[in-house]
Amino acid sequence: QVPLVESGGGLVQAGGSLRLSCAASGRTFSSYAMGWFRQAPGKEREFVAVINWSGGSTYYAHSVKGRFTISRDNAKNTVYLQMNSLKPEDTAVYYCAASSEFGATIGRYNYWGQGTQVTVSS
């Protein structure tokens, strides 16, 4: 088990920034790839970004590339998502998740947080 707790969501105006955090419990955090996903009302959950176990590799969805940055601090068991130049279409519940594989496939993620709401006003 890898309990995950997201924080940092909120309401922001278009063009603004937010930083999401995802804190993990347990001693195996550094062995997992960590991903961020989001789900808007009425839509399927979609991939946002992933970082490998060491932080040396990252991959982003096309819609967020250049605006969002994923990072991790294994000493703090935490992964971050820095979101800049936010747009109303970024509004969603954001989830962090852990996987033993580096990738964007949602089915490969075994552990999920409860989500944090991000709302971007126009």
Q: How would you describe the overall organization of this protein?
A:
With 122 residues, the protein is mostly beta strands. Helix content is 0%, strand content 48%.
Describe the SSE topology.
Elements: E1 4-7, E2 10-13, E3 18-24, E4 33-39, E5 46-51, E6 58-60, E7 68-73, E8 78-83, E9 92-99, E10 111-112, E11 116-121
Parallel strand pairs: 2-11
Antiparallel strand pairs: 1-3, 3-8, 4-5, 4-9, 5-6, 7-8, 9-10, 9-11
Question: Can you describe this structure in just a few lines?
Answer:
The chain contains no helices and eleven strands. The protein has 122 residues and is mostly beta strands. Strand 5 (46-51) and strand 6 (58-60) form a beta hairpin.
Through-space gap between termini:
39 Å
> Which regions have little confidence, pLDDT < 50, spanning 5+ residues?
none
What general outline do the C-alpha atoms trace? globular
Give the helices and strands as they follow along the chain.
Answer: EEEEEEEEEEE
Helix/strand/pairing category: mainly beta
Average pLDDT for all residues: 96
Strand residues, percent: over 45%
How many strands?
11
Sheet with the most strands, sense and barrel status: 7 strands, mixed
Specify Rg, calculated over alpha carbons.
Answer: 13 Å
* Helical content (DSSP H or I, runs of 4+): under 10%
Alpha plus pi helix count = 0
